[in-house]
Amino acid sequence: MDESGLNRSSKKHKLNEEQGIVDGNTKCLENLPEEILRYIISLLPTNDAVRTSILCKRWEYLWTSIPNLGFKKGSKAKRKLFMNFVERVLLLHDSSDIKQFTLYCDVLHDGDASRIKAWISSAIRHNVQELVFDLNISEEQFSLPRCLFTCVTLTKLQFDMPCVLKIPPTIYFTNLKILTVGNVTFSDDYTTQKLFSGLPVLEEMFLEYCIWVNLTAVSISSPKLHRLRIIDDEQNSDDEDGCQVMIFGPGLKTFTYCGPICNDYCLYNSCSLERVVINACDPGKTARQVAYRMYRLLSGLSTIKKLKLSSGAVEVLNSAAELLPHVPMFNNVTHLEFDDGPTYLDRVALSTILEKFPRLNTLEFPEGINLSVNCKNADGIPAPVPPCFLSHLRCIKVYCYAEVQNQLPAIKNLLKNAVALDKIVISSNNHFARDFEKQLMEFPRGSKNCKFIIY
Length: 455
Description:
This protein is an alpha/beta fold. It has helices spanning 3-30, 34-42, 46-51, 79-92, 110-125, 189-197, 287-299, 311-318, 348-354, 387-391, 408-417, 436-442, and strands at 68-72, 100-107, 130-137, 156-160, 164-165, 178-182, 185-186, 204-210, 217-221, 227-232, 244-248, 254-259, 264-268, 275-280, 306-310, 335-339, 343-344, 362-365, 369-370, 395-400, 423-428, 451-454. Among the domains are: 35-66, no CATH class; 345-455, no CATH class. The protein contains 12 helices and 22 strands. Strand 20 (395-400), helix 11 (408-417) and strand 21 (423-428) form a beta-alpha-beta unit. Helix 7 (287-299) crosses helix 8 and helix 8 packs across helix 9 (348-354). Residues 15-22 have low confidence and may be disordered.
């Protein structure tokens, strides 16, 4: 046999071996118990799970019992195929429960709306536990199926849809533990209050980029709520009146707010609250009004242990200096962090705020520190020096994302005034200058025990 014949024979033999492996693997899968096959298929994305029906006769309907269904829109050209696919999957799904149902879809006209409502209703009839849908709605008129608001099996509900949220007369989520609402416009006080009041076992609530302009006053109260996050869109800042949002959190552990503080957020009975994040952005024309809202928000946080403030939150308080002496004492806070932009040490508001943390142990500046261009005080920190600098402050962390050299005067001032300091941690994404450490070592230190950690 010539050389070419030998090569062909070798390739054919190799191909037969590979085919044998494939056939062997297929036979191994075919021999598995049906429950294991169903479990394997359930791990696949919904599209791929449905495709397994063509593998062999035994696999044809195994996918119809998968507990997790996820659908994400494709291109406009394939829109009709997508809509029909979702409908077919739900139609052929057997009577077993659906654990998770996820849908990302456009709602372009009334026909789409009715189909999507039918899909959500179908998931509810299958005792869905986790329901997530993100609907890109072209018209403001869209309502969710009424059965959604009394679903007893739901433990997680997450929906994002830019339209007015219509609440039915009856609403009660007996087992809902996690609720995320995004981009909706709350219609009125009465129906919104019904939503917030129908959550007896809720543990986590996230209200993201919602529109509050139609509301005057509502309360959020759930005995088991331990995590609350509110993110406001800047377009809400045009509403000067805002809404009074009263938060009653006997079990609340963490609270996060991001936005222009367009509403009056007040916390009551929050003695269990431990960690708070306030990321306030530039309020523009309403700066003074926002400063008063910021003050009222801080007034309900006196028992917390850890606080993270944006540099914008500090600037907001500068707009109403008469409020600064009345900011409550934070006797339990041991960790304070200033984020979202460099912190200017010579701001009067910052110095006054620091006076309110007598037991502060750790002070962190993730976006760096600086002194104002027109700073006239050589010490940087306005007198008097905050009490915690003299007694409790043990650790300062500075992350220098800007030019490190420009932040040296501010670091120098911290070292001079923090007389109880054990260590200062300085990190940067840029290379330190050769003489950087030398300059630090030459700075006068209020604490002889202070160590440098640089990386």
